[in-house]
């Protein structure tokens, strides 16, 4: 008798487990990822041997008046190898000009620029090696730049290291950036 009761309980539990509430595939909603997030990203490929903080300034009016702009700061870990420093502009902001400030660390040695990548939605553009300097130039009051090696040397004024800045070649960068929005 015990065996019959256990057998009946086993069948009932097996039937209950196999008849769980399942949804048909027709009722499932398919969600496609939205690759377009309306965020403009700038990835600077750089070698900086000491920890530092880099800034990206941007304008939206075509000018290079970066004084009224709040920069985007990004920490950089000191390394002797190339690393990517990613700056993400606020959602919905599309720049017309860009400027890099390469650090606050007074002990920083020469910085090497390997390239830059601009990306927006599904579009991206890379300028690597000497091509980077087709779009950016050294602020001669702050630093020098060697396009062949990518070396950025901060100037010393009264024994104090200036913070290197790279300004855009306004006509060239200004013509390139709108292409990413298309």
What does the model show?
- This protein has one domain (40-181): Sandwich (Lipoxygenase-1).
- 15% of the residues lie in helices and 37% in strands.
- The chain has helices at residues 2-18, 132-135, 170-176; strands spanning 40-47, 52-59, 72-76, 83-88, 97-101, 111-120, 123-128, 136-138, 143-146, 151-154, 156-157, 160-161, 165-168.
- The strands form three sheets. Strands 1, 4, 6, 7, 9 and 10 form a six-stranded antiparallel beta sheet that branches. A five-stranded antiparallel beta sheet has the order 3-2-5-13-8.
- Residues 19-25 and 30-34 have low confidence and may be disordered.
Short description:
The chain has 182 residues and is α+β, with helices and mostly antiparallel strands.
Keywords:
alpha+beta, Lipoxygenase-1, five-stranded antiparallel β-sheet, 3 helices, globular
SSE series: HEEEEEEEHEEEEEEH
Query: Low-confidence parts lasting 5 or more residues at pLDDT below 50?
Result: 19-25, 30-34
User: What is the terminal separation in angstroms?
Assistant: 78 Å
Question: In the CATH scheme, what's the topology name?
Answer: Lipoxygenase-1
Determine the mean pLDDT: 86
* Main sheet attributes: strand count, strand direction, barrel closure: 6 strands, antiparallel
Q: What is the CATH architecture term?
A: Sandwich
* Count of distinct strands: 13
Instruction: Supply the number of structural domains.
Output: 1
Percent of residues in helices comes to 10-25%
Report the portion of residues in β strands: 35-45%
Principal-axes shape call:
globular
Specify Rg, calculated over alpha carbons: 27 Å
CATH class: Mainly Beta
**Structural class by sheet pairing and helices:** alpha+beta
> Number of helical segments?
3
């Amino acid at each position: 008798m015990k065996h019959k009761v256990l057998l009946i309980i086993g069948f009932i539990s097996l039937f209950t487990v196999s008849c769980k509430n399942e949804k048909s595939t027709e009722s499932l909603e398919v969600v496609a990822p939205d690759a377009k997030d309306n965020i403009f990203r700038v990835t600077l490929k750089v070698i900086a041997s000491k920890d530092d903080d880099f800034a990206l300034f941007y304008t939206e009016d075509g000018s290079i008046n970066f004084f009224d702009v709040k920069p985007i700061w990004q920490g950089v870990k000191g390394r002797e190898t190339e690393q990517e420093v990613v700056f993400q502009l606020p959602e919905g902001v599309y720049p017309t000009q860009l400027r890099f400030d390469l650090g606050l660390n007074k002990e920083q040695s020469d910085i090497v620029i390997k390239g830059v990548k601009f990306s927006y939605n599904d579009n991206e553009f890379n300028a690597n090696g000497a091509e980077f300097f087709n779009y950016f130039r050294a602020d001669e009051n702050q630093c020098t730049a060697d396009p062949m090696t990518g070396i950025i040397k901060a100037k010393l004024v009264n024994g104090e290291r200036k913070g290197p800045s790279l300004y855009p070649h306004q006509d060239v960068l200004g013509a390139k950036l709108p292409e990413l929005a298309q």
